[in-house]
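quick q for whoever's on today - can somebody do inverse folding on this one?? i tried earlier but teh output was garbage lol. tokens:
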């Protein structure tokens, strides 16, 4: 006899989203989480007493706000902070900065006045070009999609097929250069767009296929804004946890699943690390495909072709995240002096252009620390006072792509220190006394997230955003199962699934609906 209708492995935002959808449909759900907190790689942690940092994911870049109401997060106090600008990108002193205003009129005025009317025209035309991908994405947002090749082939006109092909299989830079031709005037715009293209990939902006990540990031959400949850990114999962528990759901923290119990080709429950067996009608994994199938399924239980396809999934994703406390908000100098006293200072990014990213990519793939890394530096407590003690001190986080993934034994800490030193040096271009402001500091790389959350190679995308690992090729390329797996009663519902990574809740929601349909009690209400 089964103890639960559904067991969910992982209490991240997707696992909790699935739990909410299943539990309020009348299912008895148990969520098992290896850590002692909800959120997984999108958690709020008090790394230093009195200061809260968003560890892993930190903002809602592609989140659809209608889900706040649908998932009842608003009933548990969830709030979003949407600043008037998402970022301020700077480069060399003679380069015009690029400000990501969230209001279209503010953005248009900034582009025309600071970058030229040709930049405004380029941005509008690029938006129209992205619309091809956005229409395709929204068509399959809640459905099991075909592969990208199949989707493109089914388009009725050649113009759309060509656009989707370029947006999926082209390089980011060949698209960017079409709309922003002047590297002197548009370097920071080009760099900002290129940075979105390498997020979640093991590519450079000149690599064929890098356009897919750029297209995804600019079209998957309502808008490409950097929205901050009040209280830190972990409030996404903590509010979902409250909703789940309000409906009677059960979560066990510090509970490590050792393997799935497989009988006659079907998963009938889980075996815990302490030997306990828990039975269920259905089991959902929110882990990546390698952890789910190669690590938690006994050898020989999966079809050979499927197991080999799992082995071939690409995960390599190198990055550095530095969390700090600082004595006070910085006073910016040189090309960023104009942001002092404005909200535009909450997030600044050093990205000179695609050539800078290309060089960093080349050094990273050669196992070297970048000489001149691109750096995001943000001050969350400037927008949300609940994250710091209120005594004038603040939280600060830096992030950079392209930390090497192939690191010689014993060299990780040394290379990590070199990377952080170069990230700080980059910020000193506009904050000369930056080092003097730092009180506390902790550094995480992909190795931390691999160990802490069982993420293969520390890949926060749970499978890189490459064209051959998107849409119908998630979670396993060549497998047409969507959220279903070759094993009966075992389902996938994490970011390894379509539509992919980022804090979106969509894989969890869509996966739960598939399970409800299979269990014979579907909740067909659409998200409003």
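ok took a stab at it. sequence:
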């Amino acid at each position: 006899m089964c103890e639960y209708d559904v067991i969910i492995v992982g209490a991240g935002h997707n696992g909790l989203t699935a739990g909410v959808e299943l539990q309020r449909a009348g299912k008895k759900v148990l969520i098992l989480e290896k850590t002692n907190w909800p959120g997984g790689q999108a958690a709020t942690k008090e790394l230093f007493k009195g200061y809260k940092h968003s560890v892993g994911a930190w903002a809602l870049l592609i989140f659809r706000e209608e889900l706040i109401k649908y998932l009842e997060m608003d009933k548990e106090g969830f709030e979003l902070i949407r600043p008037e600008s998402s970022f301020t990108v700077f480069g060399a002193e003679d380069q015009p900065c690029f400000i990501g205003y969230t209001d279209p009129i503010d953005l248009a005025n900034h582009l025309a006045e600071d970058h030229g009317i040709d930049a405004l025209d380029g941005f509008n035309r690029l938006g129209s070009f992205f619309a091809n991908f956005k229409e395709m994405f929204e068509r399959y947002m809640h459905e099991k999609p075909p592969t990208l090749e199949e989707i493109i082939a089914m388009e009725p006109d050649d113009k759309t097929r060509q656009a989707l092909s370029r947006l999926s299989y082209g390089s980011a830079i060949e698209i960017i250069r079409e709309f922003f031709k002047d590297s002197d005037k548009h370097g920071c715009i080009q760099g900002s767009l290129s940075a979105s293209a390498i997020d979640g990939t093991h590519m450079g902006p000149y690599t064929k296929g890098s356009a897919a990540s750029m297209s995804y990031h600019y079209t998957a959400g309502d808008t490409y804004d950097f929205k901050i949850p009040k209280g830190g990114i972990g409030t996404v999962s903590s509010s979902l946890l409250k909703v789940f528990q309000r409906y009677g759901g059960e979560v066990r923290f510090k509970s490590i699943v050792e393997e799935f119990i497989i009988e006659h080709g079907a998963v009938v429950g889980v075996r815990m690390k302490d030997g306990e067996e828990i039975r269920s009608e259905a089991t959902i994994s929110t882990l990546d495909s390698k952890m789910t199938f190669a690590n938690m399924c006994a050898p020989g239980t999966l079809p050979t072709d499927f197991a080999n396809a799992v082995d071939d999934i690409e995960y390599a994703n190198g990055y550095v995240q530095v969390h700090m406390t600082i004595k006070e908000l910085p006073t910016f100098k040189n090309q960023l002096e104009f942001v002092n006293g404005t909200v535009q200072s909450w997030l600044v990014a050093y990205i000179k252009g695609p050539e800078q990213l290309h060089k960093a990519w080349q050094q990273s793939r050669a196992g070297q620390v970048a000489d001149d890394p691109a750096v995001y530096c943000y001050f969350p407590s400037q927008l949300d006072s609940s994250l710091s003690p209120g005594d004038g001190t603040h939280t600060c986080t830096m992030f950079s792509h392209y930390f090497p993934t192939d690191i010689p034994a014993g060299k990780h800490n040394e290379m990590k220190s070199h990377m952080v030193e170069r990230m700080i040096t980059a910020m000193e271009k506009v904050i000369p006394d930056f080092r003097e402001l730092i009180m506390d500091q902790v550094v995480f790389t992909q190795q931390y997230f691999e160990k802490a959350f069982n993420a293969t190679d520390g890949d926060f995308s749970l499978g890189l955003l490459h064209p051959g690992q998107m849409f119908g090729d998630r979670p396993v390329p060549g497998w047409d199962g969507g959220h279903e797996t070759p094993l009966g009663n075992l389902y996938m519902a994490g970011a390894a699934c379509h539509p992919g990574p980022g804090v979106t809740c969509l894989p969890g929601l869509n996966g739960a609906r598939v399970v409800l349909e299979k269990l014979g009690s579907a909740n067909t209400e659409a998200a409003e």
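fwiw The mean pLDDT is 95. also The longest strand covers residues 277-285. so keep that in mind when u check it
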